[in-house]
């Protein structure tokens, strides 16, 4: 159906809604601020009163100080570098193998039928338990963490690449063939642009899983990296420092997630 | 031969056979001394160790512990998550305010906070359950809200045209319409819970199946470690398949 | 036809404006017509003439309007029990099988299971779906699903059946055949019916009277009596008289439809500039 009067009505309705949305946005902002204030207020009063969780809830001031202290310490940046290197290398390896495997699974019906169920059902299994094997194969250094991270990222990237390959609108492929595009042109002009979003989405998910796996592996057996740092702060029973470091790591994870999401949309 | 190819079970079986073949090849390469037998045990030894692990390491007891943690955190997640998701649907501004936060929570590396949970809940089941709960909560909340919001307007109009009361509207139209999405949320949440339970058990060496792997690895019992890992992976895969079956079975002819 | 009888449904100077003081659209402009008991009236107009708005007002889903829609002595400002609505979109409940879908309104009223299933079977027969009682909507074709919706509406035995383009998503042949079904049911039940549509042949095939609306603001351009013989079947589309009516109404509609088209093209252009 051609764009019709209904559309006009909707368009003007959208204009009208704008006023309401503006009012709503202010309420939403108010609620968010209220939640944040409430949370901080409760936290601080709990910390000051010392009624329950006495040693577990340090003052916000202390946490803030510890965050700043961490951000200016050389130790934090050194460990961040290690974790970032491990995660990004793992992600690159996972993406390379994952996209390749995904293309195979998506392109060939038989290969897809034969192996995708295994990839699919293995993908949500807890990966950290493979760490002992990775240590046997790659030692206790960075390599075992990278391998585990790559393995973690592989599954979601392979699955979403395969799904993306299958989701391509068949008519686009027919259009390409009708213009007698070469296989290379088909790949670069039709398949890749059409699959961009699912592949990036897989990489975004893969980033999350490989980051957490790398961090957890570092807490288990390592002498560097942010995961190691979490454990050493924990062993010193420095609660404020522990909260501070966790806040920073969560922020980094969120930021990375957002960055890849943005990259995908461009 | 070509008719064999067309059988629906053939590709999956073929895939499984490939894994078996890899196992056999590894066995042969190990025996020939091409692969290093100090980092890779003989697959035949792993199989034998499987029996040993099941018999000697109190697998059933360990499964009961992990299962217990799963059940408690899993039900807590549903009992809290579904009402919370409904609340977010009911109060639109609240949803707009916190939905992004919950989504961020779902992607956050919460398990890394396990030292914190250790301090608060002590070294025991409490820590495992609390962490699994926090890790698994977000999907069921988000999917409940998504399902309710996604109720087609025309179905709501049908309800209005029949002058339905607000509770009738919720139980007869909104809830059944959202149910498939809620089930998906529960499946995702329980998957998260399982990952957290096994992971934390392994990391802090408490409780059930996760600890077993840690124990065996620390004893340098290589075949048994491989066997236990294989066993846990098999159990989780079975769990996922069961969840999926359950999800499909609970909604006939949709 | 006993023209003396009180009208079943009266639409009186109904206007509806969307928006606020700064910017608004007049969707309906002083629309007035009546539907007599047992009569089949169709409202036809180009897309964007406010047909759906009218449907929502009469059905009570849009309370805030000027003028009056009356059933008996009651002014409609919420869903009225004597009006049964059939929606344009597929509106069966996917989680209920056919018989439970059809029995749904009775279930709300607390009718016991045996009784409501018996009645549901009757209406399932009426729309020609006997044998499909235990099927779920996902196992039915689009035309069958729409018939389930119609049966679900008819089971409450509404005085007035109000339908909004119920066949819009179906193909032409199914539409003609379902039209036959509707005609047959309407004659059998002496069902007062108001059909909202943009389909010319459908309107002429089914209606006793056709209300032709203009493009925005939607007001009545003309009311045409269709004097085609009853009982009527889809064979009527071949007759000269049918062709005559279609041509006549198209003559009125063409101008409105092309105004609508120009408008939407203008908007599309404006949109592109905005982007």
Give structural notes:
The complex is a heterotrimer of chains A (266), B (254) and C (275). Chain A has helices spanning 5-49, 60-72, 74-107, 109-122, 131-138, 142-167, 170-178, 183-220, 226-235, 239-265. Chain A is an all-alpha fold. Chain A folds into 2 domains: 5-57; 63-265, MetI-like fold. In chain A, helix 3 crosses helix 9 (226-235) and helix 8 (183-220) runs antiparallel to helix 10. Chain A starts with a helix and ends with a helix. Chain B is mostly helical and 254 residues long. Chain B has 2 domains: 2-40, no CATH class; 58-249, MetI-like (MetI-like fold), CATH 1.10.3720.10. Chain B is 82% helix and 0% strand. In chain B, helix 4 runs antiparallel to helix 5, helix 4 packs antiparallel against helix 9 and helix 6 (114-121) packs across helix 7 (125-149). Chain B starts with a helix and ends in a 5-residue tail after the last helix. The mean pLDDT of chain B is 89. Chain C has 2 domains: 1-82 and 160-261, Rossmann fold (3-Layer(aba) Sandwich), CATH 3.40.50.300; 91-157, no CATH class. Chain C contains 7 helices and 10 strands. A 6-stranded mixed sheet of chain C has the order 6-7-8-3-9-10, with helices on both faces. In chain C, strands 2-1-4-5 form a 4-stranded antiparallel sheet, covered by helices on one side. In chain C, helix 2 packs across helix 3 (113-126), helix 2 (98-108) packs parallel to helix 4 and helix 3 packs across helix 4. Chain C is globular. The model of chain C has no long low-confidence stretch (mean pLDDT 87). Chains in contact: A-B, A-C, B-C. Chains A and B meet through helix 1, helix 4, helix 5, helix 8 and helix 9 of A and helix 2, helix 5, helix 6, helix 9 and helix 10 of B.
